[in-house]
Amino acid sequence: MKRYRFSWNRPFITGLLFGALSLFYFSGSFGLRQVKRYQGIGAEFMPRIYAAVLFICAAIQLVEGIRRQFVETEPSAVQEPSKAVDKQGRRNVAFAFLLIFVYIAALKPVGFMLASAVFIFALCVLLTPDYAKRNYLGYAVFSVLLATGTYFLFKNVLYIALTAGTVFGG
């Protein structure tokens, strides 16, 4: 007979934390000044979109956590990650947060397109698993296309100006 025990697993905790964060982020968007510049799109538009996407991702994590909530107590059923893999994962998360702060600091001096392309490239390199071959040319093309596409989407569709950077005269 199989026995089950309650387990606070990482996907469940992550889903709860990011779900609460998304609700806090969404409620914070109501404090933004409601100046409609272009047919109903104001400063609150993108934060609400980001909050909704974050909430959907948190819900997926929460469902995965609930699915794993009750695990078998047999040793073969529970597989713990090795210490080296766990340490490397924590190191990658720390580097990802560092990259975010560097990206935010670089936006004004170097501009959106260059800062975004470098940030996306660095994240691609960082988040590629060690067992996979890194495709630097593919990462570079993807980074430039995504940054350029996002810039033109904001400029020509949403009519929101993004910084060109003080280094390049923007």
- Sheet-strand content, in percent, reads under 5%
Q: What structural class is derived from the secondary structure elements?
A: mainly alpha
Count of alpha and pi helical runs: 5
- Give the radius of gyration: 21 Å
Total beta-strand segments = 2
| pLDDT < 50 runs, ≥5 residues | none
Calculate the terminal CA-CA distance, rounded to whole Å. 69 Å
Determine the mean pLDDT: 77
Q: Characterize the main sheet.
A: 2 strands, antiparallel
Instruction: Enumerate the strands of the largest sheet in spatial order, edge to edge or round the barrel.
Output: 1-2
What general outline do the C-alpha atoms trace? globular
The helicity comes to 55-70%
How many structural domains? 2
Order of helices and strands: EHHEHHH
Structure overview:
With 170 residues, the protein is mostly helical. The chain has 2 domains: 1-79, no CATH class; 81-170, no CATH class. 63% of the residues lie in helices and 4% in strands. It has 5 helices and 2 strands. A two-stranded antiparallel ribbon has the order 1-2. Helix 4 runs antiparallel to helix 5. The longest helix has 28 residues, at 83-110. The chain starts with a strand and ends in a 14-residue tail after the last helix. The model has no long low-confidence stretch (mean pLDDT 77).
Features:
5 helices, mainly alpha, 2 domains, 4% strand, two-stranded antiparallel ribbon
Write the layout of secondary structure elements.
Elements: E1 4-6, H1 10-28, H2 45-67, E2 70-72, H3 83-110, H4 112-127, H5 136-156
Antiparallel strand pairs: 1-2
Task: Briefly say what this structure is.
It is built from five helices and two strands, in the order βααβααα.
